[in-house]
Each structure stands twice: as C-alpha cells, then as structure tokens.
Design goal:
Helix content is 33%, strand content 25%. The protein is α/β, with parallel strands linked by helices. It is globular.
C-alpha cells in the first residue's frame, strides 16, 4: 500500500489478493485489461469482470484490450456486463475521460439473479442502489503493462478518483 497524490493505491499481484480487495471495499469503476499476462490468447481480464460482478456489483467495468475482436467485445458487454470495451490501438485520452464521466454519471446498480434463460445463461436485472458513503470514488485498474497503468492512474487521479492498481487477475 502506498500513497500517490494523497490517494490510496492498493496493488494485488495474485488472484488470491485481488478478490479480497473487491470484497473489502466497493469500487465505482474498474478498468480491466483483457490479457493479464503473456500472450494474445490470455483472457484473465474476463475472470476479473466476473469477480467484479459477483463481489462488487455496483462497480462499472470498462474492458481495455489490445487483442479485441467484435465477438469478444460483444461478449464483454452482454455476457460479462462491461459498460464498454476500449481498444488500446485507438485509445484517446479525451474520449476516455468522457467515457468515465458518462459511466459514473449513472447511479450504482445492484445485480439480481433471474431464472436461467433457454440458452442456459443467467440474465441479470439491475436496480439502482441508494447514493451513500458505501460507494466512494474508488477505481480499480487491472492492467499488466506498467505504462498503461501509469496513464490510467494519471487520468483517473486527475479526475479526482481514488485509484487502486493491480497487475494481474490475482
């Protein structure tokens, strides 16, 4: 744990360390890299999306990836509940700030499990949670690349958010 610009930053280096962070304190936003490790086929970020949805349902999740396909983006949005999917190759700081503002202008939601559909997938209904101190301006960033962690930390800290960084699903 260390302090950057008067903001607390938690760093998790393993799955066993990240899940308690999601359980311990709620986050208003999570920015998650798809590939948290070596190789274009690594998709551990999707596991982070699942964990955030399960343990931190009021959290808005944005998937960030250098390996996006249309199918993956659609799955992130529909199956994993991501707010948006951003490609690193076309990343724009101004657009990112606007996206974060848009995502956080909505009240936090709670996910309630509904009966399974015909395809066997769970459908989620969302209901607004009351605004309270339970939802601080905390943002979780799960990104394995130090350069991208630094960019996201700078942008989100400058916007007034408490940023928690982790470099892996763990």
């Amino acid at each position: 744990e260390m302090c950057i610009r008067d903001r607390e930053v938690d760093v998790a280096e393993s799955l066993d360390a990240a899940v308690p962070l999601l359980r311990r304190s709620p986050h208003r936003l999570a920015v998650v890299d798809l590939a948290l490790g070596a190789g274009a086929t690594n998709q551990e970020g999707l596991d982070v999306l699942k964990a955030a949805r399960r343990h931190d349902p009021g959290c808005v999740v944005v998937l960030l990836t250098g390996y996006a396909t249309v199918e993956l983006a659609v799955a992130a949005l529909t199956d994993y509940g991501a707010f948006s999917c951003l490609r690193k190759a076309s990343f724009d700081r101004s657009e990112f700030r606007h996206l974060v503002h848009r995502a956080l202008s909505q009240p936090p939601t709670s996910i309630e499990q509904a009966p399974r559909g015909a395809a066997g997938r769970e459908r989620a209904a969302t209901t607004p949670l009351p605004q309270s101190s339970r939802f601080p301006n905390a943002v979780l960033v799960a990104e394995d690349d130090a350069g991208w962690r630094s960019i996201l930390l700078e942008l989100l800290s400058d916007a007034g958010y408490e940023v928690r960084l982790c470099n892996s699903y763990g």
